């Protein structure tokens, strides 16, 4: 059974007065609408969903990088009475919750950081849902969102000495050009970047040649 | 969870893996032992990381299909289906009847492969190295022959397409699949005779690695692991995705959730898969194997997002796709069951012996292609 985010939103507003919540409409055929939660009240909302509304499994946690907030609002369209995103880019975390008892889901909850800077942070969901432990570590590793209150926030997939966050949209991949005798296509571009002085394909030879 | 280690100079620290026959790939566990007892266990990931998700953002939707084969490389066809279904949810594509049946048949054959190979591996973990695995692989190879005839590849199938499958079943394929399905219970009976009452198996697995139901649900554990603990949660029944609501099958449940239940539940699930296969092969209708309106070249999806999941052999395999209306996904996220099932590995192992860790890890049934992506 699909979750009804509009009804759940109404319930949350009465149960947790003072929290800022908004319905975001999904324009696509999947029609999986979502609830945008102000990050300060994220833990309270997740706890209420778990304890009072039966959403006992946080199945999936996705990080998304939005350098362009207009694009973010086109995927999760602002509903009635909601506010458009601020003019700066931000990072977003999307939670998919299910109820194993009532067999309802997915309920899509989203929370956003203030900006895309080094201090971008969001409260951790681990005190409410253990399943977020490794997934939040992965998002910290690949997107650089700091999860406040996470018991063991370390890199998980990249090695510990790695700096930077590869899933960010503005991440620049390292120069991993390997010599090819007949460079073509994307390899030519890589070769040009690798040998800045060279201006023709003929000169792309091995340094030791 | 972080653990305060008492008298840490008295502890023996063991780095188990990354190259170790019991870790099922390149996976490492930093274990701290007090005598033989595990007091801390920290998994180390990433030896097989290639940023699958980032690569998928840079290519078209269809170009990721062959790469999904490499996630859980024991079960490529389940991964294909999960991804195809996510794109179909995102773009609102209908799948014809025949294609739905072919998908169910392939997914259930894949479940047979996975659970059969699982039995071989876990017995290897218990010291029965070789024979059990060869018994399992003999049966697996028969199914892989069917896959090769259908898709051209034993393992890296690249078979599902948005709106159906890549090609139709070759002549006589369904009849051969039927023969295989009819012969499979004999193998299961044989394997069960060896295992169910085996003294070593009972001693090594009973009462090992169980956790309360609530902890498992809270930890996001899905699939046979969760059902072995007695939680009736099978996405084939819960979501009735594809055409699973048309088949008559039962969801086997364990009682205690220990490693013994986890092994036995796979036997029972295989028997139910055979039931589904029999019905699906019988009902297999004619018609299109792919939606003729579904376009492969220049395929674009409407703006939006979709989360869709299937009951993979290892648990809930989900794909979360965010589309900005271009030919590439804006965000492509895999929800890998074996990665998330590992969340509670430490909790299961604390207070047990190092030898039990190997069995518990084996009973989770991980594939590193999916864990590290």
Summarize the structure.
The complex is a heterodimer of chains A (209) and B (373). Chain A is an alpha/beta fold and 209 residues long.
Please describe what this structure looks like:
- The complex is a heterodimer of chains A (209) and B (373).
- Chain A has helices at 5-15, 42-53, 69-75, 132-143, 186-194, and strands at residues 21-25, 34-37, 57-66, 77-78, 90-99, 104-112, 121-123, 146-148.
- Chain A is α/β, with parallel strands linked by helices and 209 residues long.
- The longest helix of chain A has 12 residues, at 42-53.
- Chain B is of the alpha+beta class and 373 residues long.
- Chain B has a single domain, classed as Orthogonal Bundle (Cytochrome-c3 Hydrogenase, chain B).
- In chain B, strands 1-2-3 form a 3-stranded antiparallel beta sheet. Chain B has a 3-stranded antiparallel beta sheet with strand order 6-7-8. A two-stranded antiparallel sheet of chain B has the order 4-5.
- In chain B, helix 5 (131-151) runs antiparallel to helix 6.
- The A-B interface holds A 26-30, 32, 56-60, 62, 64, 71, 74-76, 94, 96, 100, 103, 106, 108, 129-135, 142, 151-152, 156-159, 166-167 and B 1-2, 45-46, 49, 51, 53-54, 89-92, 214-215, 217-222, 231, 233, 238, 301-309, 316, 318, 320, 322-324, 330-331, 333, 335, 339-340, 342-344, 372-373.
Secondary structure elements and pairings:
The complex is a heterodimer of chains A (209) and B (373).
Chain A: H1 5-15, E1 21-25, E2 34-37, H2 42-53, E3 57-66, H3 69-75, E4 77-78, E5 90-99, E6 104-112, E7 121-123, H4 132-143, E8 146-148, H5 186-194
Parallel strand pairs in A: 2-6, 7-8
Antiparallel strand pairs in A: 1-2, 1-4, 3-5, 5-6
Chain B: E1 12-16, E2 28-34, E3 37-44, H1 52-57, H2 65-68, H3 76-91, H4 97-125, H5 131-151, E4 160-161, E5 164-165, H6 173-195, H7 199-205, H8 213-218, H9 224-228, H10 235-238, H11 259-283, E6 304-312, E7 315-323, E8 331-335, H12 337-341, H13 345-349, H14 354-364, H15 368-372
Helix pairs in contact in B: 3-4, 4-5, 4-11, 4-14, 5-6, 6-11
